Structure formats: structure tokens, C-alpha cells
Amino acid sequence: MKATSGRVPPMTPNSMPQASDTWTYPSPSNAAHQHGQTYCTQTAKRLETTAPFSLLLVPQHPQLEKMLSLDIPSALLTALLVFIGTRIVNYFKFAKQTGYLPGLRSLATPISVLGASLPTGRFNPGLNWQWQWRKHVYEAYARHGTETISSLPYLFGEPAIYTSSLEVARQIVSTRGSFYKHTETTGITLEWGPNLFAANGDEWKRFRRVITPAFSSSTYASLLTEAASIFDQMVAGEGWLTKDSVDIPNSDFLTNKFALIVIATSGFGHPLSWNLKSASLSDEMSFGEALHIRLHNLILRLILPQWAYWLPIKKFRDLEKATQVTQDFMNDMIRTRREELSAGAVPKTDILSLMIQSSENEGRFSMTDSELVGNTAIMLFAGHETTALTLNAALGLMALHPDFQDEMHHEVMTVMPTEADFTFANSSKLRKTQACFLEASRIYPSGFMWIRDAAEDIVLEHVGPNRDQRIPVPKGTRLVVDSIGLHHNPRLFPDPEAFKPERWYDVSENALTMFSMGARACIGRRFAITEATCFLAKLVRDWRVEILTRGGESKAQWEAKYMEGRAVTNFGIAEMPVRLVRRA
Ligand code: HEM
């Protein structure tokens, strides 16, 4: 499906009122305002020359008091009217820009800083609306006859078009040159430097060209072996070797650490031990903790001014410390590898070595130092939290579906009965184990929004109920692929709330939509699947995963409480209490 680009045909006025493009904002230079301004300037001049300084703070001149009491409210009223006027004009402008699509109407849009900072609720969609309102939204789609809606602000934020249609999503993420990633939407990833996730055009091609060779079959083969060994370190390090049953109050702690060590070891050729403290150059905070704090406070980091970190507020101080620990870790890793390579070490093909080698070459595919740090950060961040959140969801789903878990166990015992059988070639035969991870990723897609801006006027096709409607989208319009909506769209995934791993049996890699599509699909797709398959296969071979209830909780109560997704930087399940029971 290819979007037809070109001039936008004139909009046909429909039931919505049209805003005139020639409207001017109410001018602040009206008579009352001018009067107040002249008076204030004159009074201030008089006060400057005749009155002591305290008069400026406490007006004692009776006439001044009178005038101020009259003019401040009227100035405020004027400002309020100007504000409301501009918002009304903007609202209709935005409605026209987004093709008068029905949808979300709120004070602040979900992807504005204000909207994203406030929780999802009746009056604020917030970051979690895609999950919390997924069923309700489908009712709204059905009512409006479309899988593509708009989000318009009454007060704050940019308008956007959201889609849960696969056909529209494909046009947005795969049409070359017509859409790009705006720095307003990728800014949180740019703090460390330019990176593959945020880049566009030639810069994106250059980064992708440098990094892609690190994602090869030989990488996945060693990844499988390394991930298996990290899993064994986890079992020993957590003291499970002698136990028949282990209660894990929150699996996120384990999956996060596992995925972080895997990306550092296999992705960056920088092995870390299960005791992550040794990876930090700080005694106060481990590297794992630092990354966790950074990832969960990205919006705070974006809005806090630099001086705020000097305030005696623990959360702010921890955030600053976490930034420092992460920066030190990356600098140290880059410096060590540079030294190894310049001392004549055999060139490696991990992500870091490839980037360093390119930074030392001149030419079209060279990376600057800040690009090197920016790409290191994005790979570390994107390369572990996404997988960890999905693994948490998979554990929960396995605990709720013991029969399917037994099928997974049977498959692993058939394909990989011994440690020697744990090879990459064999792992691809574990279709039930892989499908369990993919189905967890469908229900809880960690990359939950794929955001683009239109680089030119373009027409989106297949938008309506029978996918026959076309929507002209003007240049500059923001579009969001709602990956939660898409993966819960009953047209694409019948019975979307049900756990049905068989949906993913023998599906080609390009059809794994949770990793996006086309040239900009996730570079770490196979990496994530390989490490997750290894984790789940090793786990299910020796252990049965059960729900861990507290205080007489029923299975239904446990499910309602813990199988809820939450969107922060990524989307998924962050708290997952499970019990492991050793298989006979
Ligand atoms: C379950 C695990 C994962 C999921 C669901 C996932 C999902 C996604 C999605 C949907 C995108 C496209 C985002 C967009 O277009 O805005 C993406 C891009 C990306 N992912 Fe992943 N990802 C996962 C794991 C990983 C891993 C393990 C790595 C690194 C080793 C990684 C690195 C990246 C990078 C660098 C990009 C940007 C690629 C580009 O723009 O060329 N991801 N991912």
C-alpha cells in the first residue's frame, strides 16, 4: 500500500465550522491597555525619582492604588480573552489540519509535556489512554466508522492523527521521504547526542550502515550462548540452585538486569557480571539502578532546569547522580575499547567496536564523538528495557496459562534436552517459546507509539470503514501509529484480548508488526527474540511459573491487578509477582 503524495485537494467543508485563515489575534494595543500602559510608565518614572524603594513594593499613592486595582484585573481579563481567542482559532485550524477526523478532545494532548505528565483520567488522556481506553476507543471507532482518529487540544499541545489501522500505519512508517521524526518528539533521546532512533535522511542511513553489521547471524549465535550463561549466573547469583520454589515479588528486577547484561555483553562486547555494582564507577548507585532511574524520569529530566538539581530534593539529586553514573559508564566503556583497538586488538564486530572504528575513519560513513555517545546510549536504553518489559508480560501470561506452559516445556525438552543443545540453530525450532514472547509483545507492545511528522502534503489512503476513504494531510501534521490500538484491532487480531500464541506460528520476520515495518523497523528485532527465547526456554525447562498471590487474592484479582500495562518511556508490565516451582 503506497500513500499517494502530491498536492492536497481542497478541503470540503462538512458539518464542522471552518476557521478563517485570515483571522487576526485580538490585539493587545486596545485603548484600555494603552491607557494603563501610559499611566504605569508615567507613575513608575515618578516613583523612581521621588519615592523610596519600598514604595515600588507597597504602593501607597491613593491614585496609584485605585488605578492598579482597576487595571490589573482588566489586563488579566484582556490576556485571558486573547488566550481563549487564540485557542478557539487554533482548535478549528487543527480540526481542519487533521481532516475533521473525530477522536480525542482534551485540555492537553497526550504527547504534550503537560498531558503526558498528568495521569490518564476522564479529562486527560495522558500517556496511558491507548491501553486504558483501548476497548472504549474501539467503540468510538465503530461509532465514527474509522480506525484513524485525531487528537485535538483545547489548551495545550500539538494536534495529531492517531491510527490503529495496519494499512495507514504502513504508509506512515514506510513511505520514503514523506514523513520524518521531529526533534520535538525525539528530544528525550537526544540528550546524549545524535542517534539512530532520532535521525532522518542521510544521517539515519549513515548510522544504520555503520551499526547494521553488528546484527548478523554470528552475533545471534554468540548471543544465544552468552545469554544462556548469563541466565545460569542469575540462577546461581539469586541463590536458586538449592531451592525447589522461589518467590519473586517483582520479576522486573531480574528481567531488566538480565537484558541489560545481555546488551552490554553481546551487543557491546563489554561483559558485565550478575553483580552489577562492579559495573558502576560510583559506590552509591549501581549502573542498573542509574539506567532505571533515567528511564523512568525522562519527562522530569526534560522539564527540570539545571539549578533544580542543587535543591535538597532526593528525587532530583538521584536523577542527577543517575545521569552521571550512566555518562561515566559509557565514557569508560568507550575509552577502554579505544585503547584496546589502538593497541592492535583484533577488530570486533560488536556495535561499539564498529562505531569506534567508523569514528576513527574519515569519509562518508564516519561518526563524530557525540554521535558515538548518542548511539551508545540509545542502544543501551532501547536494547534492554523493551525486552525486559515484554519478558515480564510473558511470565505473567505463562503463569495464567499453565497448559501452554507445559507445551513449551515439552518442546524445549524435545529440541534442547541438554546444555549442549542450546544453540542458535536449535533456538529457531522453539516455535511455541518464540510465539509466547511474540504474543506477549502483541498484547503489550513496548514500542507503543511510532511518531512521524509529514514532510510534505500527502494523502493517506484506506482510512474509512471499508478502507476506501482518503484524508489529505498537510505538511507539518503529526501522525502517531498507535501500536497498542493496532495490535488490539479485532479486524487484524480476532479476539484481541485473548492470549493465542498460535497467531505467530510460522509467521515471517517482516510480519512481526510489533517491531514496526519497512526500512525503519527495529534493528534489534532478532536480537530481542533470540535473547528472550533463550531466557524463557531455560526457565521453562527447569521451572513452572505460577502466579504469586498475597492476602488471599484470587487468580482473577491477581490478573486484574498485575496484567495492566503502563506507559512510561516504553510500554509494558513493570511489576510482576510470580513463583517458580522446580519441575520434577
Ligand atoms: C521486545 C523488544 C523490542 C521491541 C518491541 C522494539 C520495538 C521497536 C519499534 C516499534 C521500533 C520503531 C520505532 C519507531 O519507528 O518510532 C524500534 C526501533 C528501534 N529499536 Fe527496537 N524494539 C525492541 C528491542 C530492541 C533491541 C533489543 C534493540 C537493540 C539491540 C533495539 C533498538 C532499536 C533501535 C536502535 C531502533 C531505531 C531504528 C531506526 O530508526 O532505524 N530495539 N524498536
TrEMBL record:
Binding site for heme: 522
Family that this chain belongs to: Belongs to the cytochrome P450 family.
Biochemical pathway: Secondary metabolite biosynthesis
Co-factor requirement: heme
Positions with biased composition (Polar residues): 13-30
Protein species of origin: Trametes cubensis
Stated name of the protein: Cytochrome P450
Pfam families cross-referenced by the UniProt entry: p450
Keywords: Heme, Iron, Metal-binding, Monooxygenase, Oxidoreductase
Ranges where the record places region Disordered: 1-30
GO molecular function, one term: heme binding
